[in-house]
Amino acid sequence: MQGRSRPTHQQYVKVLKRRLKHAYELSRKESEKNKKANKRRWDAKVKFSHISEFDRVLVRNLNLRGKHKLTDRWESQVYIVIQQLQDLPVYVVRPEDSDRPERTLHRDLLRPCGFISAMDGEESQLPDYELSDADMFNTTDETEPIAGLNPKASVFEPKGFNFSAVDDALQPTAESMLLMDPNDTVLHIQGEEFPNNSVEVPVTETNEDVDMPILETPTQETVTETLPQRPQRQRHLLFADKQVNTELYQLRQKHLSSFHGEGEETEKASTIESFVTNFANIYESDLLPTRNGEELTEHFLHEVVDILLRYIKKTYDEKSKVLDFHHPHQLLEGLEGFSVELSDQPEPLEQILVDCRDTLKYGVKTGHPRYFNQLSSGLDIIGLAGEWLTATANTNMFTYEIAPVFIVMEEVVLKKMHEIIGWGESEADGIFSPGGSISNLYSVLVARYKHYPEIKTKGMAALPAITLFVSEHSHYSVKKAAAVLGIGMDNVIAVRCDERGKMIPSELEKNIIKIKRQGKVPLYVSATAGTTVYGAFDPLANIADICEKYNLWMHVDAAWGGGLLLSRRHSHKLSGIERANSVTWNPHKLMGVPLQCSAFLVREKGLLQACNQLCAGYLFQQDKQYDTAYDTGDKAIQCGRHIDVFKLWLMWRAKGTQGFEILINKSLELAEYLYKELKARKNYEFVFDAEPELTNVCFWYIPPSLQQIPKGPEREERLHQVAPKIKARMIEEGTTMVSYQPHGNHVNFFRMVFSNPATNKSDVDFLLEEIERLGKDL
């Protein structure tokens, strides 16, 4: 050890962070390389995002995965606990042990992860991945290089790592614990030789032939708890070996006792607050309502919240990926330790936490500033809090007696929406439904009942051939409602629109007259306030005139554009909506409320109740001690109904109507900015050249290879392939997401929409640059 200075703990933390980040980047690059080559990939990933500024840092579940699907047979979990105490070594806890020489096995496990440098004179064979001294030690402050750490650590060894050998070696038969020296030296401690809160930790060298510094023995002030680990494989041995079962039970009871204060002289609060909880031996059955499960429940939920907070922070980071794409077969087969298969035996909570992290990891960050794929995007923090509270309350919306606060909130919010539309407060009604499609179904259901109440008992056989009218740009949900309600899709007439996507009133009247001549009965017209693709607003006032003339039910599908009613600058686009008989309005779109939140609003009070009520005696008793008019469940076609109103109510309280107005105006300003940017560039064409009415902007990207080709069938055929190919590359790289589709006679084009408050003009610029980068060679 002469000539080798001992690094401080703070210095080691800096280097460890840098090496973790480097290991992560290398594994990511190798993973992407294999994915592009369409190969089964393996990863030894280190999640750098897990390195935090807290007193203790926990890097969980560094899974080694090979072509033999080792994670289906055993799981290697490496924990690195860095405690902010001077000169305290770093602990690496491994739940497996082996008969192989300890030091060799430890090196095989840890070297691919970047924690073991080249040992015994063996240098790394990865010149492209070597870390230079500048890369390793170039920090923002004036930290000197640390003696004893090899800056050229072997971080990623896909060729030199023998998976089958490790698989054969890892037979989990005992608990063990490893100490890793700041000088990259591994020492071994038998974890079963000392109890929790031990005063002294025996330390022995693993190889006398190698010059390795002996660490100072940690005292009770630095090490007060050593938690036994339970490997996943041992769970399958419980029924085969009673002795193993007994030993594991004793270890688990010993672990649990450390949280419940059995045999401890120190206060349990101090112990829990000072160390990271180990969930490898904790199961769902140990949480509340199990007796004495309060503290474990609290710590488990804290871990869940920590996962969510990390995800939220990453969602708002424009430099992070929107998604990490994998094909369905890859998710079904399992990847990087993440499996969606269900087991008969319970998984420990450590695995449950891993599942939570991986579920978010492999999903799509719909709150990302560069996610433009759907009408609903963004992640509102107040709305998220409302959703958490709703899940915690876990009640049903059918009666006042079990959801008193939420029932009253729903009435208040619905009245507010009625006022904004322009209906009288006392005459209107409504209900929150699971999505705009169901709200549109309610509109057809109620319209039919209004004209033919006998439908409720006698069915369609008692009715004449009724007909519904929609625009050719309307949402498909009205046709689906016709199919569900027995009206039939052939009895839904699509009315022609102009180039901008607006229903032509004269065409509507022509179709009504034509249907009447055929002996059918016109019943219902669905006008759209904000079409899905073009973002167009039908001329509501003109359509209302026609509906009144022919005594038709007028519904306005404002699922997308209803939010504009909150903007004094843009609400005029929905002029005439106050004359509608019913309205669909989805706050989970333009208003940014978390999914799902859709309101069906009807102008006539009592109609919704009369249409759907069945007066189930076990729910809707009329002799209750309160006003049973607040038992709103009989208005719905469902029995059980989720609480969708609270998150909207909470956001409205937090933002006020003015806050929603600011959010909505910003989204339309971004659409106007995109329109002007596209107009100034030569390699884009508009599907229709008009300033956006909503936040939809539809356009083609014209790659250089097509710019000199005259318009015609050949150009159209080739242009039809451009958007799908660019979108595929976007998804593979995960940088952004935007929707595309054909529409009518138009070949595939991009449809850009804005509803995310996190999006800025720089994100719009990025999207255009990304489209050009990904599509210039097409």
Please outline the helices and strands:
Blueprint: H1 9-36, E1 56-59, E2 79-83, E3 90-93, H2 102-110, H3 133-137, H4 163-169, E4 177-180, E5 186-189, H5 242-260, H6 268-274, H7 294-315, H8 328-333, H9 349-361, E6 371-372, H10 381-393, H11 404-421, E7 429-433, H12 436-451, H13 455-458, E8 466-471, H14 477-484, E9 492-495, H15 505-517, E10 521-528, H16 540-550, E11 553-558, E12 582-585, E13 598-602, H17 607-612, H18 645-679, E14 684-686, E15 697-701, H19 713-719, H20 722-733, E16 737-743, E17 746-752, H21 761-775
Parallel strand pairs: 6-16, 8-9, 8-10, 10-11, 11-12
Antiparallel strand pairs: 1-2, 2-3, 3-4, 4-5, 7-13, 12-13, 14-15, 15-17, 16-17
Summarize the entry for a quick read:
The protein has helices at 9-36, 102-110, 133-137, 163-169, 242-260, 268-274, 294-315, 328-333, 349-361, 381-393, 404-421, 436-451, 455-458, 477-484, 505-517, 540-550, 607-612, 645-679, 713-719, 722-733, 761-775; strands at 56-59, 79-83, 90-93, 177-180, 186-189, 371-372, 429-433, 466-471, 492-495, 521-528, 553-558, 582-585, 598-602, 684-686, 697-701, 737-743, 746-752.
What attributes characterize this protein structure?
778 residues; alpha/beta; seven-stranded mixed beta sheet; 21 helices; 35% helix; globular; disordered N terminus
Structure description:
Helix content is 35%, strand content 11%. It is built from 21 helices and 17 strands. The strands form 3 sheets. The chain has a 7-stranded mixed sheet, with helices on both faces. Helix 14 links the parallel strand 8 (466-471) and strand 9 (492-495). Helix 7 (294-315) packs parallel to helix 9, helix 10 (381-393) runs antiparallel to helix 18 (645-679) and helix 12 (436-451) packs across helix 14 (477-484). The model is unreliable at 1-13, 38-249 and 261-276 (pLDDT under 50).
